[in-house]
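Quiz preparation item.
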């Protein structure tokens, strides 16, 4: 029995999967790759799993990206937006920035510059 998903199926060629794997190993997130290749993030994970590439757990912060995260946060992005860009959850970003000495702004639902520009 086949179920209708309401969307077109996108099949990747072997060289596209090679690129997907390479980009993931270079630090791209599942969400970034899904957007780039026009597929669902779970499909990205399935391709990586088939190639025996370990999946990074969302929420964990990669310490090598602390300067990037600090710059993004200082530019006015929210913790959520920074997390999306560096592949970590907002609380993990908050902890890492605070441990690095970056002052955390008060919340309150303010829109970032990124959101205000759209």
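Solution:
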């Amino acid at each position: 029995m086949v179920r209708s998903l309401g969307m077109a199926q996108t099949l990747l060629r072997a060289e596209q999967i090679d690129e997907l794997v390479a980009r993931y190993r270079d630090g791209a997130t599942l969400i970034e790759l899904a957007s780039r290749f026009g597929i669902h993030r779970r499909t990205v994970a399935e391709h990586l799993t088939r190639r025996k590439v370990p999946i990074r757990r969302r929420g964990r912060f990669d310490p090598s990206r602390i300067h990037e995260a600090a710059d993004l946060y200082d530019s006015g992005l929210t913790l959520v937006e920074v997390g999306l860009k560096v592949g970590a959850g907002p609380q993990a970003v908050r902890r890492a920035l605070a441990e690095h000495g970056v002052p955390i702004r008060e919340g309150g639902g303010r829109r970032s510059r990124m959101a205000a520009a759209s």
